[in-house]
Amino acid sequence: MPDLIEMEIVKNSLIAIAEEMFTVTAKTSKSPIIYDVLDFSTGLTDAEGDVVSQATGIPLFIGMLDFNAKAPLDKFGKDGLQPGDVIIVNDPYISGTHLNDVAIVAPFFHKDELLAIGVNKGHYYDIGGMVFGSWGPKGSEVYHEGILIPPVKLYEENRLNKDVLDLLLENSRLPSYVLGDIEAQTASMKLAERRLKALVSKYGLDTVKANMDKIQRDGETVAWNRIKMLPKGVFRAEDYYDDSGVSEDPMKLTVKVEIDDDKFDVDLSGNPPAVRAAINTTYPATVAAVRIVYAAVLDPHVRYCQGFVKPLRITIPENTVFNAKKPYPVGIYWETMTYAADLVWKALAPYIPDRLTAGHFLSVVAETIAGINPRNGEAFALVEPNPGGWGAGYDKDGESALVSFADGETFITSIEVIEQRYPIIVERYQLNTEDGVGHGEFRGGFGIVKDYRLLADAEFTTAVNRSKFPPWGVNGGLPGTYNYMLIIKSDGSETRVRKVSGERLKAGDLVSIRTAGGGGWGDPRKRDPEKVREDVMEGYITVDDAKRIYRVVLRENLEIDWEATGWERSQPSP
Amino acid sequence: MKNSSTNFLSLANIYQTMSKRVAIDIGGGFTDLFAIDEETGEIAWSKDETTPANYSEGVMRVFSKSGVDPSTVSSLLHGQTLVINTIITRRGSKVGLITTKGFRDVILITRSNRRDIYNLRYRKPASFVPRHLIREVDERVGYDGTVLKPLNEGDVEAATKSLVSLGVQSIAVCYINSYANQSNEARSKELIVRVLENMGVRPYVSVSSEITGEWREYERTSTTVLNAYVHPQMDNYLRNLEEILRRKGVRGELFMMLSSGGVSTFRYAADYPILSIESGPAAGVVGAITIGELLGIKNIIALDGGSTTTKASLVEELMPRVLTDYYVERDQFNAGYPVKVPVIDIVEVGNGGGSIAWIDETGSMRVGPASAGADPGPACYGRGGQKPTLTDAYLITGIINPNYFLGGALRLDIHLAKKAMGELAERLDMTVDETAFGVVRLGNDNASQVIRRISIERGYDPRDFTIVAFGGSGPMFASFIAEELEVGNVIIPSIPPGVFSAWGLLMTDLRHDFVKTSVTRLDHPQAIERVANTYSELEVRARGIQHNGGKKGDIVLARYADMRYYGQEHVLKVGVPNGEVDRQLIEELERRFHENHYKYYSFKLDSPIEIVNYHVVALLKVRKPILKLLPREDTSVSKAFKGEREAYLDAKRGWVRVEVYERGRLPPGATLKGPMIVEDPTSTAIVLPGQKISVDQYGNLHVRKGGE
Predict the structure, then answer these.
(1) Apex CA A34: angle with CA B112 and CA A454, to 5°?
(2) Both A88 and A154 in a single domain?
(3) How much is the average pLDDT of A424-453?
(4) Above pLDDT 90, what percent of chain B?
(5) Which of B506, B400, B381, B354 is nearest to B32 (CA)?
């Protein structure tokens, strides 16, 4: 019988290694999107590429660590990997997401035996392609979106393959960022290797391997236990994406979820074919997104591992927007991918209210503002996600200004850091009370308004969704509001945009980022009048809103007129 | 007008009789007093329950219990948990916030991170200021400190009046980019104070740039608001305490322990209460440093094993690591509230004597973080606790003596311990003894993980350090950790663990930290000038603490720099040589940074280097009382020997007979081989097979490898 106590100690050490990989990357990276925003993830897999442990980071990336570990295994085979090899890969069709997300993968050996694989996947600022920042809505094939890296050895038995490095650096507009990220990610691999060696020499190879197996077995056991507690049945949802990529016509998307004691199946059949526009997403990314909602529904506090997601079966027909093949472009894949998760969420929310809220702003609302910084003559690129409004729960209002579900321990860049680093003045950063939220017995949370005044000419790229189809409400809760941006030129002209590819803006122009309010839960007329009053006091809604939407009548001194409120609420809906 | 020379003479007379340094540490459960006579080295201590309704009451109680004559007190050093408790229990004041136009919601937006990443019903930390008490004023400073828009003074006055009319008791001010130019904030403070005084309201005003000179608007706002939240409470408490102490006859100086490991005057602590948020734990680290100073040991790991948590802190060259990266209420699943003030870097895990052992659904045994607390406490306390804890495991394995816990004040019931452990054992299909020892091992592993985090994960080898173990369970973990991490020497101080923090307070120097963010590339043509100017600006302010401290003496200034490679964000703190800033000094600084970066992250780069934060520490060294040598009467190994008992210290050997000694009777110079147990009324130290123990002249125990 294995020593139970030792097993627990080794398990804690495996988790500690993945977390330490994360810390070392954040602390040594030179890209704000890595060190400040934390747009990356780290993990350890077993020799088969199945995830054993990972650090808290971007849940989307965590859900595809296995694909990245398996990519070099599939290409080189176990025999083709040697101690000291470090692989670099960004091929979206086998490792997920888009070309900007580059994984560094390293096999770890004990003597000649492959023991584990380390993965570190993060967002690179620029990897070539048609616009500064590489990603954008415009590409019609993947070749427009930067350099595609199949699994190649950056290090062979500890020797740097300088030719590969040179090739990558020469293909980026920001080579020093690429170099810095590669160095930081590689440092995390060296560290993981040292820690694993120490672990094996202390507890023995067999204990460490037995532990990795146990983690998978335990994860699966817990998952099945949780699935048995879920409501059973077939659940469906449909929704609309703002456009089809190639036209302004909306794109209808649909899902079927089947849950039973012995299954958790997600079927994404019946969705549109892949298009010659950057909105396609690949199989690994779609799977990773669905895994987030699956984990949330089963038990958000179970440590993620491969065994835990094993019961989840996902059907995604090939050559659809959710499972595009080369050379279909994937530059803004995430705006479609998020729908795969949101559909499952929407199908299940009314039935699993203790785990799910009404719809949230969903889009990552990312933008690139890039150019030459007149202060030092160097190239700069601001790339960031933005926070938005979350949906209400059955017993709570939605959270305001929180990152999207695909992001997790992700930090929105500080205004003071932005102003110090980029030729930009932030004129305001506030909750978006102008556009409002989805009202309900519990209301959605607020999005944000952030105004950037450019102090230099810059290229601007963005792609957001839910600009035409707002976050959904539940049980009579109202839908939320829209994500969009305004470009206000110095001549005063104003344009509402949601997809922009490398537009040239001038110094003095203003970019105003507006994110959506979340969906409501329950009939607004059932909202506690005290809460309605509080929202008025806090400046979230007006006295008029209180009466019109919530049927709560407030006196001039903002006290509740209970009699009038009672009468208002007894009237039939218009 | 008084004649100054007479005045001087009378002061000198007073100082002759005022020879006692007194430390008072208010903890969550107990208030401790520890006093030492600077002339004779005589010590005294007392303990009583903390009185949260009126903390001064508990303070006065320990005072009278200790028998210390208030008129003999030369200085009183105070540590407290009032600040953190007021925050955690949400019993602070109604705060209003004044901020730059356009940025009302910064504190509500936070950094927008979802720390509990798979929880789609995540809740953000709720703001300490409601939105209707946040006011915007017209003003704007640029990133480089340029005033882009002058302060609209009318806005500030109007905001102040309107906040007060809504019942606000304490006002926080935080403007965008005030780290680069504090003039608008400073002027606002003057205006607010004037308005409040005219209204007859006591002016509680917290201004961000006075509290933290660092960038990042959310973090600075959060820090300032939390300061404002506890400002009136702390001010009232300290005024009240000072009045009572003076009435009782205390004429000496009064100091507050800060989280940075230094002390300040009561006045300063009352204005900046957030600086003493981790006052108590910092004192323990200072105590460990003092032990090191006394024994000539410079690299120390302070290990504090409490009843619910284990804390560890790394000390290099007798200097604690002081960072400004603290959070209130942050854990694995909650983002918490950032507090950017200097706090000794202490890492904590939910693991202590009261930690509950349990089996998770996969059949793995776990210890903590849930704790049985003091009530009902471990099963063996017999107060109704049903769940097995680490203390129960220590009892079953023979490590603790059931009749000598707290000196016999609490008789432990081994049957209850075994009954609780038995349920766990049955589910694991193990014997009760094996299970109990498994719990001990997991508790030890939790404690050694904390030490790994502060050492190995930061590039330090724990084998280069000495562990100073204190707290109720510290001495029980220490030997196991020493074996696990191959640490050569563990010191278990002779100061009783219960009052170790209070004792540490006595050893603290007056310390103030001055930090300023100003990004400087070291290869910039004006780098030398900028570095020199910034340090000189901070050093002028630092010398000013003499006025604050009101105490004569030599101020020691130490420079630090938070540095990084150009393009990086995260910084490493590096010690900066004193003396004139010239080319040579900059080169030395670069060399130190490269070396540190390599140490922490195992690589260095070719890139240019930047200073981000300039940091100057001002220390006013206090005269340290000497730890009294262990009295030599009535001690000998044979007198200390209490008998033998069976203990389970090792999975392979199982039960072994070990000798048991009474700590207080071991003579200096004694050396004994493990396995053995050394007891005193407040703690138990374990010496494993293969380890030996020696007693130094002060009565500290040293556990080292070797023996058998």
Answers:
(1) 70
(2) yes
(3) 98
(4) 45
(5) B506
Mean pLDDT score, B417-430 = 92
Residue with tokens 């009530």: B375
Taking contacts as CB-CB distances below 8 angstroms, the residues of chain B near A41 are none
Every domain of chain B and the residues it spans:
1-72, 89-234, 282-309+350-508+632-708, 510-620
How many CB atoms are located within 10 Å of the residue B626 CB?
Answer: 11
Please state which CATH class domain B510-620 belongs to.
alpha beta
Q: Are residues A397 and A539 in the same domain?
A: no
**Domain presence at residue A378:** yes
pTM over 0.95: no
CB proximity A56 to B under 8 Å: yes
**Residue at A277 is within a domain:** no
Of A292, A412, A539, the CB nearest to B118: A292
Summarize the confidence of residues B410-419 as an average pLDDT: 92
Same domain membership, residue A532 and residue A519: no
Report strand pairing: B95-100 vs B134-137. Answer: parallel
Q: Which fold has domain B1-72?
A: Nucleotidyltransferase; domain 5 (3.30.420)
Inspect the interface and report whether the beta carbons of A16 and B449 lie closer than 8 Å: yes
What is the distance in angstroms between the Cα of A408 and the nearest Cα belonging to chain B? 5
One of 3.40.50, 1.20.120, 1.10.1740, 3.30.200 is the CATH number of B89-234, namely 3.40.50
**Mean pLDDT across the stretch A288-310?**
95
The answer to whether residues A139 and A176 belong to one domain is yes
DSSP, collapsed to helix, strand or coil, labels residue A368 as strand
Q: In whole angstroms, give the CA distance from residue A340 to residue A291.
A: 10
Q: Which of the given ranges, A496-500, B13-17, B346-350, has the highest pLDDT on average? A: A496-500
Give A 303-342 residues with CB within 8 A of chain B. Answer: 304
Count Cβ atoms below 10 Å from residue B13 Cβ, excluding itself: 9
Residue A1's pLDDT is: 40
Q: Once rounded to an integer, what is the mean pLDDT over residues A220-242?
A: 97
Q: List A44's β-bridge partners, or say none.
A: A53, A118
For residue B626, the model assigns a pLDDT of 62
**DSSP string spanning B42-99?**
-EEEEEEE--TT-HHHHHHHHHHHHT--GGGEEEEEEE-SHHHHHHHTT----EEEEE
Whether residue A519 lies inside any domain: the answer is: yes
* Residue B524: pLDDT over 70: yes
Token reading at A573: 């809906």
Is residue A321 within 8 A of residue A255, CB to CB? The reply is no
Taking 70 as the threshold, does the pLDDT of residue B40 lie above it?
yes
Residues 6+ apart with CB under 8 A from B35: B20, B21, B22, B23, B43, B44, B45, B66, B68
Three-class SS state of A84: coil
Contacts of A35 (CB under 8 A, 6+ apart): A26, A27, A29, B568, B569, B570
Residue B623 pLDDT? 61
In chain B, residues 434-473 whose CB comes closer than 8 Å to chain A: 438, 441-442, 445, 449, 452-453, 457
Look at residue A189 and tell me if it is in a domain: yes
Reported as a pLDDT band with limits 50, 70 and 90, residue B552 is low
Nearest chain A CA: its distance from B216 CA (Å): 6
Q: Examine the predicted complex and report whether its ipTM is higher than 0.90.
A: yes
- With a CB cutoff of 8 Å and minimum separation 6, the contacts of B12 are none
Question: A278 φ, ψ to 5°?
Answer: -75, 10
Which of A202, A220, A238 terminates a domain? The answer is A220
Cα-to-chain-centroid distance, residue A267: 21
Question: Residue B496's pLDDT is what?
Answer: 78
Name residues whose C-beta falls within 8 Å of residue B64's C-beta, 6 or more positions apart in sequence.
Answer: none
- SS3 for A308? helix
